[in-house]
C-alpha cells in the first residue's frame, strides 16, 4: 500500500514536470511570437493553454484521489498537498505565457515592442524559460542544489525587469504611451512567471525535506 | 468523529472569511492611501501583509492536520482541499493590496495618479473591496446566489479596467510615461485582486455542491 502510494506520488510529480516543460515551451514560443511577429505561433500558444488547464485539473483530481484512497500522513501527505499547489503554479505560468502571446496577436502585424527592446525581451523570455525548465528538473529529480540556483536566476530576472523600467522612465522615451503600457505588462507577466518557477522549487523542497513547522495540533 | 471533522472545517472557513475581511480592509486602505496620499496608511497596509501571510500558513497547516487526523472523503475532502486553495487566493489578494500601497509610498509626497483619475481609482478600489467582502460572506454562509453575483461584479471591474486603458491610449494623454506605467500596474493589481475574489466564490461553491467530475480512479 505504501509502495503504491509512493509510486503514485512519483507519477504525479513526473506529470507535473512534463507540464512544467510544456509551459516552458509555451513561454519560449510566446516571446518568439512577440519579438519576431509570428502570428501563427502566438495563436498556437493561446490555443494550447486549454490543454495545460485540463492537465492541471487532471493532476489535482489524481492528487485528491491519492488522499482519499491512501490517506497519507507526514511526508507523503505533504507531497500530495505540494502537488496540488504546484499544479496551480504551472497552470498560472501557462496563463502568463498566453498573455504574452495575446499581446503579440493584439498588435500584429505591428511590432508590439519597439525594435531596440527586442534583445531585452529575448533575454527576459530566455531567462523565464530556463527557470521553468529548471523547475521541471527539480520536480523530476528533487535536486536541492538546482532549486537553490533558481533563486540566483530570479535575481537575474529582477535585474532585467529593473532594466525595462529604467528604459521606460528615461525622459528620452520616444515610443509613446501605448508601447510603454505594453512593455510594462509584458515585463510584469514575465516576472510573475519567474516567481512561480521559484515557488515550485521551494514547495518541492519543502515537501521533500520538510523545513516548515509540523501541522498544528487542532 | 464526523461531527468533529465538520466543526473543524467550518472553523477553517470562518477563519478564511475573517482573513478575506482583512484583505478587503487592506485594499480599501491601500487605495485610500494612494488617492489621498496618506503615507502612514500605506505603511500600515505594507506592514500588515506579514500578518495575512502568517494567517494563510496557519490555516493551511490546520487543513493539512484535518487531512491527517480525519482522513476525510468525498465532500469533506473536497472542502479541505478548497480551504488550501482559498487560503492561497486570499494571501495573494493581500500581496496585491500591498503592491497598491507600495505604489502610494513610492511616489509620496507626489500624487501617484493624476488628479483626474482619482475618482476612477476610487471606484476600482471600492468595487474590488466590495467583491472581497462578498467573497467573505460566501465563505461564511455558502450562499450560492451571492457567489453568482460576484460574476456580475467582475464585469463591472472589467469595465472600469477597460476605462483605464481607454484613457491611457488617448492621444491626448498629458501625464507622461511614468504616470502611465503606474496606472497600468495599479489597474492590473486591482483586476487580479478581483479575479481572486471570484475564484474564492467558485471554489467554495464547487466544494459545497460539487459540480466537477469526481476524482479520477487511479
UniProtKB/TrEMBL annotation, chains A, B:
<feature type="domain" description="PhoU">
    <location>
        <begin position="19"/>
        <end position="103"/>
    </location>
</feature>
<dbReference type="GO" id="GO:0045936">
    <property type="term" value="P:negative regulation of phosphate metabolic process"/>
</dbReference>
<comment type="subunit">
    <text>Homodimer.</text>
</comment>
<protein>
    <recommendedName>
        <fullName>Phosphate-specific transport system accessory protein PhoU</fullName>
    </recommendedName>
</protein>
<feature type="domain" description="PhoU">
    <location>
        <begin position="121"/>
        <end position="204"/>
    </location>
</feature>
<dbReference type="InterPro" id="IPR026022">
    <property type="entry name" value="PhoU_dom"/>
</dbReference>
<keyword id="KW-0963">Cytoplasm</keyword>
<keyword id="KW-0813">Transport</keyword>
<keyword id="KW-0592">Phosphate transport</keyword>
<dbReference type="GO" id="GO:0006817">
    <property type="term" value="P:phosphate ion transport"/>
</dbReference>
<dbReference type="InterPro" id="IPR028366">
    <property type="entry name" value="PhoU"/>
</dbReference>
<dbReference type="Pfam" id="PF01895">
    <property type="entry name" value="PhoU"/>
</dbReference>
<comment type="function">
    <text>Plays a role in the regulation of phosphate uptake.</text>
</comment>
<comment type="similarity">
    <text>Belongs to the PhoU family.</text>
</comment>
<dbReference type="GO" id="GO:0030643">
    <property type="term" value="P:intracellular phosphate ion homeostasis"/>
</dbReference>
<dbReference type="InterPro" id="IPR038078">
    <property type="entry name" value="PhoU-like_sf"/>
</dbReference>
<dbReference type="GO" id="GO:0005737">
    <property type="term" value="C:cytoplasm"/>
</dbReference>
Amino acid at each position: 500500500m505504501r509502495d503504491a502510494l509512493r509510486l503514485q506520488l512519483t507519477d504525479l510529480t513526473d506529470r507535473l514536470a512534463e507540464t512544467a516543460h510544456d509551459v516552458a515551451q509555451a513561454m519560449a514560443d510566446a516571446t518568439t511570437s512577440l519579438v519576431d511577429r509570428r502570428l501563427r505561433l502566438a495563436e498556437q500558444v493561446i490555443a494550447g493553454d486549454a490543454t495545460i488547464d485540463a492537465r492541471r485539473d487532471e493532476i489535482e483530481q489524481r492528487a485528491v484521489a491519492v488522499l482519499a484512497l491512501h490517506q497519507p500522513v507526514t511526508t507523503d501527505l505533504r507531497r500530495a498537498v505540494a502537488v496540488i499547489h504546484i499544479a496551480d503554479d504551472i497552470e498560472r505560468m501557462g496563463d502568463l505565457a498566453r498573455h504574452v502571446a495575446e499581446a503579440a496577436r493584439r498588435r500584429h502585424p505591428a511590432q508590439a515592442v519597439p525594435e531596440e527592446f527586442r534583445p531585452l525581451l529575448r533575454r527576459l523570455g530566455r531567462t523565464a524559460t530556463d527557470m521553468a525548465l529548471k523547475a521541471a528538473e527539480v520536480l523530476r529529480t528533487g535536486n536541492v542544489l538546482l532549486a537553490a540556483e533558481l533563486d540566483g536566476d530570479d535575481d537575474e530576472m529582477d535585474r532585467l525587469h529593473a532594466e525595462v523600467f529604467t528604459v521606460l522612465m528615461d525622459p528620452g522615451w520616444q515610443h509613446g504611451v501605448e508601447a510603454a503600457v505594453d512593455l510594462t505588462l509584458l515585463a510584469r507577466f514575465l516576472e510573475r512567471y519567474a516567481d512561480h518557477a521559484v515557488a515550485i522549487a521551494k514547495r518541492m523542497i519543502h515537501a521533500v525535506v520538510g523545513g516548515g513547522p509540523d501541522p498544528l495540533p487542532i
